Amino acid sequence: MNDNNSRQNADSDSLNLRIDAAGMLHWNGHSFPCAIGKNGVSHAKIEGDGATPSGNFSLRRVLYQPDRLAPPHTALPGAPLTPRNSWCTEPSHTLYNQQVRQPIQASCVLLWRTDLIFDVIVILGHNDSLVLPGIGSAIFMHVAAEDLKPTKGSIALRKQDLLTVLRGCDPCAQLYVDALDAALQNGACGLASTLDHTIRNTSLMPSN
User: What is the pLDDT of residue 2?
Assistant: First the structure.
């Protein structure tokens, strides 16, 4: 492989997003604390298991709550949410793992919320090219809850970090989530939260 090809591969890889065993998301030379599923990472995702699926995922599109913020600056396709927007999580339903509008006779995740975690949502390409019942739905990258509380399976970042990634994100980028060793993934979210607090506290310290 010549130097030009090596450089192109390195540049392409830097545009992808990767989550490591410490619960940090790495992208384009930056690192951001993130939250993953409360039961860690799974290579055999099952609906409702509280785990984040391992693998590599395309960034499909961005949804945002227009009463909270302006359209995010991003090269990804985007659309505003409405109060009737939901995501079908019922494996037996024909619209499983798809965005739907209420009312619908199926279990769903409501996308219009009173808290902040769905202010910005990145739809990830999990179980969507050919939707298979029961192997996971509503896997997003969204705004983190306070103190990077673990999620039900999605990936969450602080709002400003998520907006930063979206602002410079290549539409062809992939999100890589590696299957973590059990001993590592048990403390991943806690370590990310600790690092987050350390970074914040350091930034608040007076300079000499």
Answer: 52
Residues with Cβ within 8 Å of 66's Cβ and at least 6 positions away in sequence, in order, are 80, 81
Q: What is the CATH number of the domain that holds 63?
A: 2.40.440.10
Q: Are 153 and 52 in contact (CB under 8 A)?
A: yes
Range of the domain at 97: 3-190
State phi, psi for 93 to the nearest 5 degrees.
-85, 150
- Judged against a pLDDT cut of 80, whether residue 13 lies above it is answered with no
Residues 83-96: tens digit of each pLDDT: 999 999 999 999 99
Which CA distances in Å does 150 have to 98, 153, 182? 23, 8, 16
**4 CB-contact burial (10 Å; exposed 0-12 / middle 13-18 / buried 19+):** exposed
Quickly count: other Cβ atoms within 10 Å of residue 71's Cβ.
11
Question: Which secondary-structure segment (H or E) carries 149?
Answer: none
Number of domains, the chain: 1
Strand stretches in 78-171, DSSP E: 78-80, 85-88, 99-101, 108-110, 120-124, 140-143, 155-157
Mean pLDDT computed over 48-57: 96
Tell me, yes or no, whether 102 lies in a domain: yes
* Contact yes or no for 45/136 (Cβ under 8 A): yes
What is the band of 184 on the pLDDT scale with cuts at 50, 70, 90?
A: very low
